[in-house]
Design a protein that fits this description.
Strand order of the largest sheet: 3-4-5-6-7-8-9
Shape: globular
Structural class: alpha+beta
Strand content: 15-25%
CATH topology of the largest domain: Fructose-1,6-Bisphosphatase, Chain A, domain 1
CATH architecture of the largest domain: 2-Layer Sandwich
Length: 273
Protein backbone atom coordinates (compact mmCIF):
# COMPACT_ATOMS: atom_id res chain seq x y z
CA UNK A 1 0.00 0.00 0.00
CA UNK A 2 1.36 3.43 -0.93
CA UNK A 3 1.83 6.03 1.77
CA UNK A 4 -0.76 8.26 0.08
CA UNK A 5 -3.32 5.47 0.35
CA UNK A 6 -2.44 5.02 4.03
CA UNK A 7 -2.92 8.75 4.61
CA UNK A 8 -6.30 8.65 2.84
CA UNK A 9 -7.49 5.69 4.89
CA UNK A 10 -6.46 7.39 8.14
CA UNK A 11 -8.17 10.63 7.08
CA UNK A 12 -11.38 8.74 6.27
CA UNK A 13 -11.28 6.87 9.58
CA UNK A 14 -10.70 10.04 11.60
CA UNK A 15 -13.35 12.02 9.72
CA UNK A 16 -15.92 9.35 10.51
CA UNK A 17 -14.90 9.22 14.16
CA UNK A 18 -15.09 13.00 14.55
CA UNK A 19 -18.39 12.98 12.68
CA UNK A 20 -19.76 10.47 15.19
CA UNK A 21 -18.97 12.92 18.00
CA UNK A 22 -20.86 15.63 16.13
CA UNK A 23 -23.82 13.35 15.50
CA UNK A 24 -23.96 12.31 19.15
CA UNK A 25 -23.98 15.94 20.30
CA UNK A 26 -26.36 17.27 17.67
CA UNK A 27 -29.36 19.29 18.95
CA UNK A 28 -28.18 19.14 22.54
CA UNK A 29 -27.21 22.07 24.77
CA UNK A 30 -23.65 23.21 24.13
CA UNK A 31 -20.97 25.28 25.78
CA UNK A 32 -20.73 28.06 23.21
CA UNK A 33 -17.95 30.65 23.27
CA UNK A 34 -16.98 33.42 20.86
CA UNK A 35 -13.58 33.97 19.26
CA UNK A 36 -12.77 36.83 16.87
CA UNK A 37 -16.33 38.20 16.75
CA UNK A 38 -19.75 37.67 18.28
CA UNK A 39 -20.68 35.41 15.35
CA UNK A 40 -17.39 33.44 15.40
CA UNK A 41 -18.38 30.53 17.63
CA UNK A 42 -16.67 27.50 19.11
CA UNK A 43 -18.28 24.69 21.09
CA UNK A 44 -17.01 21.88 23.27
CA UNK A 45 -17.73 19.57 20.32
CA UNK A 46 -15.30 21.53 18.09
CA UNK A 47 -12.63 21.07 20.72
CA UNK A 48 -13.40 17.40 21.30
CA UNK A 49 -13.23 16.70 17.56
CA UNK A 50 -9.95 18.54 17.22
CA UNK A 51 -8.46 16.73 20.21
CA UNK A 52 -9.42 13.42 18.62
CA UNK A 53 -7.99 14.29 15.21
CA UNK A 54 -4.77 15.84 16.44
CA UNK A 55 -4.18 13.20 19.08
CA UNK A 56 -4.55 10.32 16.64
CA UNK A 57 -2.39 11.94 13.96
CA UNK A 58 0.36 12.63 16.49
CA UNK A 59 0.16 9.07 17.78
CA UNK A 60 0.08 7.33 14.41
CA UNK A 61 2.12 9.74 12.27
CA UNK A 62 4.38 11.58 14.72
CA UNK A 63 6.54 13.17 12.03
CA UNK A 64 3.68 14.95 10.26
CA UNK A 65 2.86 18.65 10.63
CA UNK A 66 -0.61 19.78 11.69
CA UNK A 67 -2.57 23.00 11.15
CA UNK A 68 -5.92 23.02 12.98
CA UNK A 69 -8.63 25.66 13.38
CA UNK A 70 -8.87 25.65 17.15
CA UNK A 71 -5.14 26.08 17.68
CA UNK A 72 -3.81 22.55 18.18
CA UNK A 73 -1.11 23.24 15.62
CA UNK A 74 2.26 21.64 15.28
CA UNK A 75 3.27 23.11 11.97
CA UNK A 76 6.70 22.17 10.68
CA UNK A 77 7.91 23.43 7.32
CA UNK A 78 10.37 20.54 7.14
CA UNK A 79 7.73 17.83 7.53
CA UNK A 80 6.91 15.82 4.42
CA UNK A 81 3.17 15.68 5.16
CA UNK A 82 0.97 18.42 6.61
CA UNK A 83 -2.59 17.88 7.86
CA UNK A 84 -4.96 20.85 7.65
CA UNK A 85 -7.96 20.27 9.87
CA UNK A 86 -11.35 21.86 10.33
CA UNK A 87 -12.79 19.63 13.05
CA UNK A 88 -16.29 21.13 12.70
CA UNK A 89 -16.94 23.36 9.71
CA UNK A 90 -20.26 25.12 10.24
CA UNK A 91 -20.13 25.68 13.99
CA UNK A 92 -22.82 28.39 13.98
CA UNK A 93 -25.15 25.98 12.20
CA UNK A 94 -24.27 23.25 14.67
CA UNK A 95 -24.84 25.44 17.70
CA UNK A 96 -28.32 26.31 16.41
CA UNK A 97 -29.24 22.77 15.40
CA UNK A 98 -29.20 23.68 11.70
CA UNK A 99 -28.23 20.50 9.79
CA UNK A 100 -25.35 21.77 7.64
CA UNK A 101 -21.88 21.04 9.04
CA UNK A 102 -19.00 18.63 8.47
CA UNK A 103 -15.48 17.48 9.22
CA UNK A 104 -12.85 18.67 6.73
CA UNK A 105 -9.38 17.11 6.44
CA UNK A 106 -6.88 18.18 3.80
CA UNK A 107 -3.39 16.71 3.62
CA UNK A 108 -0.44 18.14 1.72
CA UNK A 109 2.84 16.56 0.73
CA UNK A 110 5.67 18.90 -0.02
CA UNK A 111 3.28 21.84 -0.08
CA UNK A 112 0.94 20.28 -2.66
CA UNK A 113 -2.60 19.11 -1.93
CA UNK A 114 -2.65 15.33 -2.13
CA UNK A 115 -5.62 14.09 -0.06
CA UNK A 116 -8.98 15.64 0.75
CA UNK A 117 -11.81 14.26 2.90
CA UNK A 118 -15.08 15.99 3.82
CA UNK A 119 -17.61 14.10 5.94
CA UNK A 120 -21.22 15.13 6.57
CA UNK A 121 -22.25 13.03 9.57
CA UNK A 122 -26.00 13.65 9.39
CA UNK A 123 -26.28 12.54 5.76
CA UNK A 124 -23.46 10.02 6.19
CA UNK A 125 -21.87 11.41 3.02
CA UNK A 126 -18.12 11.06 2.72
CA UNK A 127 -16.43 13.01 -0.08
CA UNK A 128 -12.82 12.10 -0.76
CA UNK A 129 -10.10 12.67 -3.31
CA UNK A 130 -6.48 11.80 -3.99
CA UNK A 131 -4.52 13.84 -6.49
CA UNK A 132 -4.74 12.14 -9.86
CA UNK A 133 -7.35 9.64 -8.64
CA UNK A 134 -10.59 11.58 -9.08
CA UNK A 135 -13.12 12.77 -6.54
CA UNK A 136 -15.61 10.39 -4.97
CA UNK A 137 -18.74 10.31 -2.85
CA UNK A 138 -18.54 6.89 -1.32
CA UNK A 139 -18.12 4.57 -4.32
CA UNK A 140 -19.53 7.05 -6.86
CA UNK A 141 -17.07 9.03 -8.92
CA UNK A 142 -17.93 12.71 -8.99
CA UNK A 143 -18.05 15.11 -11.92
CA UNK A 144 -18.86 18.80 -11.95
CA UNK A 145 -22.00 20.06 -13.69
CA UNK A 146 -22.22 21.06 -17.34
CA UNK A 147 -24.11 24.32 -16.84
CA UNK A 148 -22.64 26.98 -19.12
CA UNK A 149 -24.43 30.22 -18.19
CA UNK A 150 -24.94 32.04 -14.92
CA UNK A 151 -28.63 32.42 -15.76
CA UNK A 152 -28.97 28.63 -15.36
CA UNK A 153 -26.53 28.25 -12.48
CA UNK A 154 -27.02 27.54 -8.79
CA UNK A 155 -24.18 29.24 -6.95
CA UNK A 156 -23.21 29.60 -3.30
CA UNK A 157 -21.22 31.90 -1.06
CA UNK A 158 -20.73 32.86 2.57
CA UNK A 159 -19.85 35.82 4.75
CA UNK A 160 -16.80 36.41 6.92
CA UNK A 161 -16.96 36.79 10.68
CA UNK A 162 -16.24 40.53 10.36
CA UNK A 163 -19.30 41.12 8.15
CA UNK A 164 -20.89 43.41 10.76
CA UNK A 165 -18.05 45.93 10.61
CA UNK A 166 -16.00 45.44 7.42
CA UNK A 167 -16.51 47.37 4.19
CA UNK A 168 -15.46 44.43 2.00
CA UNK A 169 -18.39 42.38 3.26
CA UNK A 170 -19.32 40.43 0.07
CA UNK A 171 -22.80 41.96 0.00
CA UNK A 172 -22.29 43.69 -3.33
CA UNK A 173 -21.13 40.42 -4.90
CA UNK A 174 -24.05 38.61 -3.30
CA UNK A 175 -26.57 41.10 -4.69
CA UNK A 176 -25.06 40.87 -8.15
CA UNK A 177 -25.20 37.05 -8.04
CA UNK A 178 -28.86 37.17 -7.01
CA UNK A 179 -29.56 39.26 -10.12
CA UNK A 180 -27.38 37.10 -12.41
CA UNK A 181 -27.76 33.46 -11.35
CA UNK A 182 -30.73 31.11 -11.31
CA UNK A 183 -30.31 30.78 -7.56
CA UNK A 184 -27.92 31.69 -4.74
CA UNK A 185 -27.41 29.65 -1.57
CA UNK A 186 -25.63 30.45 1.67
CA UNK A 187 -25.16 27.16 3.50
CA UNK A 188 -22.67 28.17 6.18
CA UNK A 189 -20.03 25.52 5.47
CA UNK A 190 -17.44 26.33 2.82
CA UNK A 191 -16.10 22.77 2.88
CA UNK A 192 -19.55 21.39 2.02
CA UNK A 193 -20.12 24.08 -0.62
CA UNK A 194 -16.90 23.08 -2.37
CA UNK A 195 -17.86 19.40 -2.08
CA UNK A 196 -21.20 20.21 -3.69
CA UNK A 197 -19.47 21.94 -6.61
CA UNK A 198 -17.45 18.74 -7.07
CA UNK A 199 -20.66 16.69 -6.96
CA UNK A 200 -22.48 18.92 -9.46
CA UNK A 201 -25.05 20.01 -6.87
CA UNK A 202 -23.72 23.56 -7.11
CA UNK A 203 -22.32 25.07 -10.27
CA UNK A 204 -20.04 27.63 -8.61
CA UNK A 205 -18.93 29.01 -5.26
CA UNK A 206 -16.99 32.04 -4.09
CA UNK A 207 -16.08 33.46 -0.70
CA UNK A 208 -13.75 36.01 0.89
CA UNK A 209 -11.68 35.74 4.06
CA UNK A 210 -11.66 31.99 4.44
CA UNK A 211 -8.82 30.07 6.09
CA UNK A 212 -6.62 27.15 5.02
CA UNK A 213 -8.72 24.62 6.95
CA UNK A 214 -11.90 25.80 5.18
CA UNK A 215 -10.59 25.01 1.70
CA UNK A 216 -7.75 22.48 1.93
CA UNK A 217 -9.93 19.44 1.20
CA UNK A 218 -12.59 21.13 -0.93
CA UNK A 219 -10.23 22.62 -3.50
CA UNK A 220 -8.78 19.20 -4.28
CA UNK A 221 -12.28 17.71 -4.55
CA UNK A 222 -13.34 20.32 -7.12
CA UNK A 223 -10.17 19.97 -9.16
CA UNK A 224 -10.33 16.18 -9.18
CA UNK A 225 -13.99 16.32 -10.26
CA UNK A 226 -13.00 18.35 -13.33
CA UNK A 227 -13.71 21.83 -11.98
CA UNK A 228 -11.57 24.90 -11.58
CA UNK A 229 -10.52 26.84 -8.48
CA UNK A 230 -8.66 30.16 -8.62
CA UNK A 231 -8.25 33.50 -6.93
CA UNK A 232 -10.39 36.37 -8.32
CA UNK A 233 -7.71 37.19 -10.90
CA UNK A 234 -7.79 33.69 -12.33
CA UNK A 235 -4.51 32.70 -10.68
CA UNK A 236 -3.85 29.78 -8.32
CA UNK A 237 -6.14 29.67 -5.28
CA UNK A 238 -4.42 31.21 -2.25
CA UNK A 239 -3.31 28.71 0.37
CA UNK A 240 -4.87 30.79 3.14
CA UNK A 241 -8.27 30.93 1.41
CA UNK A 242 -8.51 34.72 1.47
CA UNK A 243 -10.55 34.84 -1.78
CA UNK A 244 -11.54 31.62 -3.51
CA UNK A 245 -13.60 31.15 -6.68
CA UNK A 246 -14.62 27.60 -7.62
CA UNK A 247 -16.74 26.47 -10.54
CA UNK A 248 -17.46 23.69 -12.99
CA UNK A 249 -14.95 25.36 -15.33
CA UNK A 250 -17.49 26.33 -17.98
CA UNK A 251 -18.76 29.13 -15.74
CA UNK A 252 -15.42 30.35 -14.50
CA UNK A 253 -14.93 33.29 -16.86
CA UNK A 254 -18.44 34.51 -16.09
CA UNK A 255 -17.84 34.21 -12.35
CA UNK A 256 -14.58 36.17 -12.57
CA UNK A 257 -16.25 38.84 -14.67
CA UNK A 258 -19.10 39.19 -12.18
CA UNK A 259 -16.73 39.47 -9.22
CA UNK A 260 -14.34 41.85 -11.02
CA UNK A 261 -16.73 44.77 -10.78
CA UNK A 262 -16.35 45.17 -7.02
CA UNK A 263 -13.17 43.48 -5.85
CA UNK A 264 -11.86 44.40 -2.39
CA UNK A 265 -8.87 46.78 -2.38
CA UNK A 266 -5.61 45.12 -3.35
CA UNK A 267 -7.05 42.13 -5.15
CA UNK A 268 -6.75 43.61 -8.65
CA UNK A 269 -8.78 42.60 -11.66
CA UNK A 270 -9.11 39.01 -12.84
CA UNK A 271 -7.51 37.66 -15.96
CA UNK A 272 -9.72 36.56 -18.82
CA UNK A 273 -10.78 32.91 -18.75
Amino acid sequence: MSETREVLELAVELARRAGALQRDGYERDHEVETKSASIDLVTEVDRACEALLVGEIRRRRPGDAIVAEEGSARDDTHAGWRWILDPLDGTTNYAHGYPCFCVSIGVEQGGRREVGVVYDPLRDELFHAVRGGGAWLGNRRLAVSRVETLARALVATGFAYDVHRAEDDNLVHFARAVKSAQGVRRGGSAALDLSYVAAGRLDAFWELKLHPWDVAAGILLVEEAGGRVTDPRGGPPPWDGRFVVASNGALHAAMLEMLARDLPPGTGRPAAG
